[in-house]
Design brief:
With about 300 residues, the protein is of the alpha+beta class. Among the domains are: about 40 residues; about 40 residues; about 100 residues, no CATH class. About 60% of the residues lie in helices and about 20% in strands. It has 10 helices and 8 strands. A hairpin with a 2-residue loop joins strand 4 and strand 5.
C-alpha cells in the first residue's frame, strides 16, 4: 500500500509540474509584448528607405522588412534559424563514370551505314521497289474518295440550311418575345433589390443594431489605444518655390502647437525648393488585450446578429 501511494504521489507531482509549465508558457505567450519599430529616410537625391522590425518572446522570433525604392527584402528568424527566405542549395547531377563518350561518337558516325544495311537485309531491295509502286497506284483512289466525301458534305449543308430558314415575320415575333422576357427579368430584379434594401435598412435602424455598433466602436477604440506607438519622432525639412507658400505651411503647423507640442520637428527653407526627412515609430502589442477584445465581441449577441445580417 505504501508503494502504491508513493507512485501516486510521484505521478501527481509530475502532473502538477506539467500543469505549471503549461500555465507559465500560456502566460508568457499572452503577456509577452510583440514589439515593433519602423524607421525611414527620404531626400531628393536618394531613394526612400523604410525599415520595419518586429520581435516577440525576448527577440526569439524576429521579422525584418526593408523597402528601398521598388526593391524589398523580407526575413523571418527563430533564434539562429532562418525560416524565410529559405536558402536553396542546387545539387549538381552526378555523372555516370561508366558512360563511354568515344564509343557513342563511333556509333553516331556509323549510324547511317548500319541503318541502311539492316534495312536492306531485313526487307530486301525488291520489296522496297514493290512498296513504292503500290504507293503510286493508291494515289488516284485517295483523290476520288476525297471528291466523293466533299460532295456528300456539300449536299448535307444545303439540306440543313434550307430547313433552318425562317420568314421575316417569325424573326420579328421572336425578337419581341425576347425583349419582353428581358424587360420582365430586369423589373423583377429591381423589385427584389428594393425590397432587400428596405429590409436591411429596417434591421440596421433597430435598437439591437445600434447596440452592436456601439460595442464595436468601443472595442475598436480600446484596440487602437493599445497598439498606438509609444514613441514617435518626425523630422521634416521642406522648401517651396514661393517663400510665401512655405511660410503659410509653417504657420498652419504652428497653429496646432498645443496638440503636437513640437514633437514633429518641421524646419522650413525659404531659400530653395527641397524635401527631406526621417521618422521613427516604436510600440508594442500584447496578445492578451487582443484576445479579450475578440472574446467580448464573440459572446455579444447583438454583434453576432449584425454579422449575420451583413453576411447575407
Amino acid at each position: 500500500m505504501t508503494i502504491f501511494l508513493s507512485v501516486l504521489k510521484i505521478i501527481g507531482i509530475i502532473l502538477l509540474a506539467l500543469l505549471c509549465l503549461v500555465l507559465l508558457i500560456l502566460i508568457i505567450v499572452l503577456f509577452a509584448p510583440i514589439g515593433y519599430e519602423s524607421t525611414g529616410e527620404y531626400d531628393d537625391e536618394n531613394k526612400p528607405l523604410i525599415n520595419v522590425y518586429a520581435h516577440w518572446l525576448l527577440h526569439i522570433i524576429r521579422f525584418r522588412f526593408t523597402l528601398k525604392g521598388k526593391e524589398s527584402e523580407k526575413e523571418l528568424k527563430v533564434l539562429f534559424f532562418t525560416l524565410y527566405p529559405k536558402k536553396e542549395t542546387a545539387e549538381k547531377p552526378e555523372m555516370d563514370e561508366s558512360f563511354d563518350f568515344e564509343e557513342q561518337e563511333d556509333f553516331a558516325d556509323n549510324w547511317d551505314q548500319h541503318d541502311f544495311e539492316d534495312t536492306k537485309e531485313q526487307y530486301g531491295s525488291e520489296d522496297t521497289e514493290e512498296a513504292d509502286e503500290s504507293a503510286d497506284n493508291e494515289e488516284p483512289d485517295e483523290s476520288a474518295d476525297a471528291d466523293k466525301a466533299f460532295a456528300e458534305f456539300e449536299e448535307k449543308v444545303n439540306t440543313e440550311t434550307t430547313g433552318v430558314k425562317k420568314s421575316v415575320k417569325e424573326k420579328i415575333s421572336d425578337l419581341f418575345v425576347k425583349i419582353k422576357r428581358k424587360s420582365t427579368d430586369i423589373y423583377d430584379r429591381i423589385r427584389d433589390g428594393r425590397m432587400k434594401v428596405q429590409d436591411l435598412v429596417e434591421k440596421l435602424s433597430d435598437e439591437r443594431t445600434k447596440n452592436a455598433v456601439t460595442e464595436l466602436w468601443y472595442v475598436l477604440k480600446r484596440l487602437l489605444w493599445h497598439i498606438r506607438p509609444r514613441r514617435f519622432n518626425l523630422y521634416l525639412h521642406y522648401g517651396m518655390d514661393d517663400p510665401s507658400l512655405t511660410g503659410e505651411i509653417f504657420g498652419i503647423y504652428n497653429s496646432f502647437y498645443l496638440i503636437h507640442m513640437g514633437k514633429p520637428v518641421i524646419v522650413p527653407d525659404f531659400d530653395k525648393r527641397c524635401l527631406d526627412g526621417n521618422y521613427l515609430v516604436r510600440g508594442h502589442i500584447q496578445l492578451f488585450f487582443v484576445l479579450t477584445a475578440l472574446i467580448r465581441l464573440y459572446f455579444n449577441k447583438d454583434v453576432k446578429r449584425l454579422y449575420a445580417i451583413i453576411k447575407k
